[in-house]
């Protein structure tokens, strides 16, 4: 490229920047979207300002480049391939970024102009910024890098120098380190949508965000000499698994910079092994503020995703496991055991795997669970090398040293004092730039910086807190004194800060205490906006939320008041504790301490405060508004959620705390104020918010997962969560509505006049504070905003695609509002829907009619269906690639609540409303049992008098089909449990159980494709059930035995004499696995131990090896003897047929103490020890004796015998090798008179005699009598 072409290209780049600036600035104008969030508007304006600055720099660079005309004929060095018609890579990347930005914004602007011209859509038209906050921040950072590059090129004196300036600080032949991190994490295997789906499914924790944030915050002067230490260098480079440096444990004090060091260690390993396809680098950061980061389930799944993207074969292995989890419409939940097996299989494709784990000490159990998980992964894989970075904790040390032993290298991490002083100087300069006068004096600044050098255990956290404390509370007069008397540890700084808090006014002090409490343990964590609104009703003196236009506290006031204790996350919208040491310090405060008790943190206090704040917020006059039966109600709710997000949080969270906090008087009063039987408008508004959530949002876990801003790894790009909920059976779905009346009914789905209510039919709104204009005018502000809000829930998108002109969501909200605002929908109905047992107890005392019917049914019917009635009936089988199917227990129907209602007189025979998919209580009870996973619910309904109807048979048949056709094991267990329960009820003669059992048996008989008959149908009597178990034992079919034994009847059978008989049968048939299952049912009493001993003595042949192992594992004593005093060793020392039995007895299954006792025991018949029996009966190879001698300590007491004598047994040994082994082990007795030479037989072998003469001297034998005298 010639100089003139460079100038022309730069001019074109300036034009591109100008266009991008104009397009960006249009989105920040007030007239486009007056209700845009202030923060979002500031972000857009920041992007526009950055582009404007970049355009100015590019214009200056163009002017500079145009002065190099004298070099027109010069041939430029081909540093960047400049002879090709393109800009240097940095400018080319800048151009591409700006072009893509401008094109995306122009498309959105064009769409906005088209929509605005349509008369019926004009009111909905809004021009919205199409990018996320995270993407916008990345864009600003990238533009900043381009500005730095252009600025670096401005002083150039020639075209060559200008172009080469873009390569300064880089080696174009090697990627920069941030690019190395990105490529390692995004993967080295080929991108495909399938691979992206797999990794997105397993990547549950965003460790990458922590890594990149930590690396980006690390300053250029940060260096670590520890990385050059020999053990760490060997660990990174090529350490073998058995080396001393195979595994590292690096410990350091709190706030010492361990996380930054861990990030640097990861980055260094990635940089060194960047081109090594046989090495994988994985990592995890445990954070006290993110519970998912220290849950083994999520940690392991995320590691699977990390390692999979680093090799195609590993990705294939993980893809196969993902395929196993996908069955029909259900994505099953992975298990830790199976994920471990997949992990070990994936590690085989690498030569080595380097894993760095940071922050396990921040976990609630001091990292014990995560440490054990990592240790098990390292122990189970021969090429896995672990490096853990944490504070010293004894439990971590015990686990690591117990798992790795000498292969563990421990290193102590200490921050460099020079770096610490530089860090302190940087922080002080920041404070001085903020016009803080105490740091304007250079001498005082030097004194403060030097004071950190005298600290015994310096840390960056201590320096930061000390500087901020001084900047906040010091004056020019006392700065030197304060820096000299400042505590030398974090705990002291924290305590001084609390003392300063106590000096604040009562309102500020209460604000601080409540803010700390709510940020510590709120589950799920509150966003900063939600926290501000929650604090408005936290009981702060002088603050009345009802008097505020918006019930919230200023965020800046919270952060200023809490100082070093609170900080806002660099990503996301959360205010949280600034450091884990703060949480630990505040938790350790004595609740009885009169000075600091108010700052004590605990989960119980947080949950109580959160529950009370939620109820107070819901009861504010701001929300005393009766829902309207209009389509615009949905728009109103969307706007309210956007402006007052704590309302939905409060609506969903307090019911989950109700049973736990119901004994608290203040909480109970607040709950009864909201759920007043008088049915206030606050109650109606809350009910609609909750029902609207379940109708369109799905479930609690889905909502919690959506709140976490996780950015899953995928191969090449990120995909959002595709949530497609099936609502085919819902109370408000079109499949139900199609058969329940005309479209104009309350459950109709098509447009009808009912969608626009006349003013006269609308109830008058109660008097109260004026609703904010942006909420009350929501009828006119619908459109793209509502679509965007609903898109976050995604449960209705499939309908929108099929019916683009059908306002399905608005219609559903209108219908929910219709039956909720009716007087027959009482707080008792709502409490039953949510399963609030304690609240129902209180409401039943004030509502005499427990069978009050509403449009959704009676309270009992609401309790049977729970939130599933409002949501989709097949919610538990929804299919999604991001959310694992884990419906929380609080959302499932409760057996306790049903029993409470039935005892209060609830009618189990009442017909269901027409909107239900079923016609009888029996069918609803079956479906409720399926949702709850508890078949007792169906039993309670039958016991309460539910009559038999055809739809109950149909529901049971569908459950059977899920087993027979789709092979769902849970369906098989449910069918078996239902039949077992009905059998027991028939025996007791309860209600309609006999009719149900007869009908259900008939359904089962018709299912010809069921593989295994159910015990409840095959075995009518206990004897038949026992025979079935015996057949399973004879074939050693553990699955069949479990299937039979785990039923209610099976558990009753597996007791007493029947269990003894089955145990004997299992031993006789050598069914070790079945025997283990049966032994688990023993109670462990003394009588049971006798049974185990009796079974043990039967295991005297090699074929009983597995049976013996099972008995020993379940506590059978190897010292047990029979009536003749013989133990298992006596009985197993004859010939070679018991060799493997002795091997088992000599293994770790028998303790050394029990083994020694048994080997020295004498039987009651011949007075022999087991070794003597083995020598006497072990001809010709003495195999049993050799095993005993090989594994036991030598002792002359081991060889004893009364009949025959020990000398006679020795004389009868026909193996010189055995005699030599006995002699070497020191087992042979020292004769006093008679020796084995005196007892030789006539057929004795010459080599045996020679061996005996080598052991027993002939001359010594003559002291008694001549051996030849006895030998004839």
From TrEMBL:
Residues 740-785 are annotated as: Disordered. Residues 748-781 have a biased composition (Low complexity). InterPro entries: Ankyrin_rpt (IPR002110), Ankyrin_rpt-contain_sf (IPR036770), NPHP3-like_N (IPR056884), P-loop_NTPase (IPR027417). It holds the Pfam family NPHP3_N. The keyword 4Fe-4S does not apply. Residues 226-391 form the Nephrocystin 3-like N-terminal domain. Keywords: Repeat. CDD domains: SNARE_Qc. This is Nacht and ankyrin domain protein. Gene3D superfamilies: Ankyrin repeat-containing domain (1.25.40.20), P-loop containing nucleotide triphosphate hydrolases (3.40.50.300). It comes from Colletotrichum fructicola (strain Nara gc5). The keyword Coiled coil does not apply.
């Amino acid at each position: 490229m010639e100089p003139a072409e460079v100038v022309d290209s730069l001019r074109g780049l300036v034009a591109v920047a100008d266009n991008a600036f104009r397009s960006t600035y249009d989105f920040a104008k007030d007239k486009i979207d007056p209700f845009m969030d202030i923060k979002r508007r500031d972000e857009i304006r920041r992007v526009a300002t950055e582009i404007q600055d970049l355009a100015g720099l590019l214009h200056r660079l163009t002017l500079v480049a145009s002065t190099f005309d004298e070099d027109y004929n010069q041939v430029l060095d081909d540093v960047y391939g400049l002879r090709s018609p393109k800009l240097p890579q940095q400018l080319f990347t800048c151009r591409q970024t700006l072009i893509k930005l401008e094109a995306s914004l122009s498309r959105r602007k064009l769409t906005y102009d088209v929509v605005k011209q349509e008369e019926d859509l004009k009111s909905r038209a809004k021009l919205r910024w199409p990018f996320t906050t995270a993407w916008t921040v990345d864009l600003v950072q990238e533009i900043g890098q381009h500005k730095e590059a252009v600025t670096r090129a401005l002083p150039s004196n020639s075209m060559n120098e200008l172009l080469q300036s873009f390569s300064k600080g880089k080696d174009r032949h090697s990627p920069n380190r941030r690019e190395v991190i990105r490529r390692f994490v995004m993967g080295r295997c080929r991108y495909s949508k399938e691979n992206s789906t797999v990794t997105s499914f397993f990547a549950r924790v965003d460790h990458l965000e922590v890594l990149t944030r930590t690396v980006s915050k690390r300053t250029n002067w940060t260096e670590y000499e520890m990385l050059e230490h020999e053990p760490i260098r060997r660990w990174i480079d090529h350490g073998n698994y058995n080396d001393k440096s195979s595994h590292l444990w690096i410990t350091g004090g709190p706030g010492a910079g361990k996380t930054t060091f861990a990030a640097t260690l990861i980055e260094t390993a990635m940089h060194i092994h960047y081109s090594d396809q046989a090495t994988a680098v994985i990592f995890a950061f445990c954070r006290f503020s993110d519970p998912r980061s220290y849950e083994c389930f999520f940690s392991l799944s995320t590691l699977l995703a990390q390692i999979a993207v680093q090799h195609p074969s590993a990705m294939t292995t993980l893809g196969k496991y993902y395929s196993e989890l996908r069955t029909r419409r259900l994505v099953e939940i992975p298990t830790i055991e199976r994920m471990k097996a997949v992990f070990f299989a994936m590690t085989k494709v690498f030569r080595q795997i380097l894993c760095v784990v940071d922050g396990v000490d921040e976990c609630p159990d001091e990292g014990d669970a995560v440490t054990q998980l990592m240790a098990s992964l390292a122990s189970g894989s021969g090429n896995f090398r672990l490096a853990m970075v944490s504070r010293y904790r004894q439990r971590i040390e015990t686990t690591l040293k117990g798992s790795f032993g000498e292969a563990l290298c421990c290193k102590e991490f200490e921050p460099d004092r020079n770096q610490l002083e530089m860090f302190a100087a940087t922080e002080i300069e920041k404070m001085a730039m903020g016009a803080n006068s105490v740091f304007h004096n250079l001498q005082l600044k030097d004194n403060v910086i030097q004071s950190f050098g005298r600290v015994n255990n310096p840390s960056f956290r201590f320096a930061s807190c000390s500087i901020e404390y001084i900047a906040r509370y010091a004056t020019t007069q006392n700065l030197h004194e304060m820096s000299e008397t400042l505590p030398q540890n974090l705990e002291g700084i924290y305590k001084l800060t609390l003392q300063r808090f106590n000096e604040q006014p009562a309102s500020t002090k209460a604000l601080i205490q409540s803010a700390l409490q709510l940020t510590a343990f709120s589950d799920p964590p509150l966003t900063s906006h939600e926290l501000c609104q929650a604090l408005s009703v936290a009981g702060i003196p002088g603050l009345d939320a009802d008097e505020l236009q918006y019930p919230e506290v200023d965020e800046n006031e919270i952060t200023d008041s809490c100082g070093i204790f609170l900080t806002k996350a660099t990503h996301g919208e959360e205010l949280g504790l600034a450091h884990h040491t703060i949480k630990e310090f505040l938790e350790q405060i004595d609740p009885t301490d009169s000075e600091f008790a108010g700052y004590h943190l605990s989960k119980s206090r947080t949950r109580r405060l959160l529950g009370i704040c939620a109820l107070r917020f819901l009861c504010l006059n701001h929300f005393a508004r009766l829902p309207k039966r209009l389509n615009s109600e949905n728009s109103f709710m969307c706007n309210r959620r956007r402006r007052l997000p704590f309302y939905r949080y409060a609506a969903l969270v307090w019911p989950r705390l109700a049973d736990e906090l119901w004994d608290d008087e203040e909480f109970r009063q607040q709950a009864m104020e909201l759920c007043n039987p008088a049915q206030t408008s606050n109650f109606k508004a809350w009910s609609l918010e909750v029902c609207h959530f379940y109708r369109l949002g799905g479930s609690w876990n889905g909502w919690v997962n959506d709140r976490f801003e996780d950015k899953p790894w995928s191969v090449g790009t990120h995909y959002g969560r595709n949530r497609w909920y099936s609502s085919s059976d819902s109370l408000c779905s079109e499949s139900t509505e199609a058969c329940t009346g005309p479209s104009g009914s309350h459950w109709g789905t098509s447009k009808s006049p009912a969608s626009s209510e006349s003013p006269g039919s609308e109830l008058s709104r109660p008097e109260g504070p004026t609703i904010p204009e942006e909420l009350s005018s929501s009828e006119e502000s619908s459109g793209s905003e509502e679509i965007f809000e609903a898109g976050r829930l995604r449960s209705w998108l499939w309908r929108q695609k099929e019916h683009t002109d059908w306002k399905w969501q608005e219609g559903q909200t209108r219908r929910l509002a219709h039956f909720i605002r009716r007087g027959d929908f009482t707080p008792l109905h709502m409490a039953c829907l949510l399963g609030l047992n304690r609240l129902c107890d209180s409401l039943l005392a004030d509502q005499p009619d427990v069978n009050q019917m509403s449009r959704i049914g009676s309270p009992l019917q609401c309790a049977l269906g729970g939130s599933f009635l409002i949501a989709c009936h097949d919610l538990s089988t929804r299919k999604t690639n991001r959310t694992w199917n884990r419906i929380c227990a609080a959302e499932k129907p409760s057996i306790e609540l049903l029993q409470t209602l039935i005892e209060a007189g609830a009618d189990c025979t009442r017909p269901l409303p027409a909107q239900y998919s079923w016609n009888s209580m029996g069918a609803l009870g079956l479906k409720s049992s399926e949702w709850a996973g508890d078949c007792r619910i169906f039993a309670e309904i039958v016991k309460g008098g539910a009559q038999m109807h055809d739809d109950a048979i149909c529901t049971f048949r569908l459950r059977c089909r899920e087993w027979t056709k789709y092979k769902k094991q849970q369906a098989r267990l449910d069918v078996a449990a239902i039949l077992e329960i009905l059998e027991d009820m028939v025996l007791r003669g309860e209600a309609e159980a006999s009719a149900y059992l007869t009908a259900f048996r008939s359904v089962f008989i018709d299912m010809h494709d069921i593989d295994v008959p159910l015990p409840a149908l095959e075995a009518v009597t206990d004897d038949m059930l026992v025979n079935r178990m015996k057949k399973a034992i004879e074939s050693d079919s553990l699955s069949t035995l479990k299937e039979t034994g785990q039923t209610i009847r099976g558990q009753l059978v597996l007791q007493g004499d029947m269990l003894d008989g089955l145990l004997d049968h299992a031993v006789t048939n050598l069914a070790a696995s079945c025997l283990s299952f049966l032994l688990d049912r023993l109670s462990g009493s003394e009588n049971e131990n006798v049974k185990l001993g009796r079974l043990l003595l039967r295991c005297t042949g090699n074929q009983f090896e597995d049976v013996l192992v099972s008995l020993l594992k379940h506590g059978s004593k190897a010292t047990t003897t029979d009536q003749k005093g013989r133990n298992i060793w006596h009985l197993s020392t004859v010939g070679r047929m018991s060799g493997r039995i002795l091997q088992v007895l000599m293994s770790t299954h028998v303790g050394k103490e029990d083994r020694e006792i048994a080997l020295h025991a004498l039987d009651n018949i011949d007075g022999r020890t087991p070794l003597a029996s083995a020598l006497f009966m072990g001809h010709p190879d003495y195999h049993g004796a050799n095993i005993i001698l090989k594994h036991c300590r030598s002792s002359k007491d081991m060889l004893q015998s009364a009949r025959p004598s020990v000398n006679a047994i020795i004389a009868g040994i026909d193996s010189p090798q055995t005699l030599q082994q006995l002699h070497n082990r020191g087992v042979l007795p020292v004769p006093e008179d008679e020796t084995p030479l005196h007892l030789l037989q006539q057929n004795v072998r010459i080599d045996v005699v020679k061996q005996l003469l080598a052991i027993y001297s002939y001359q010594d034998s003559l002291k008694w009598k001549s051996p030849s005298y006895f030998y004839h």
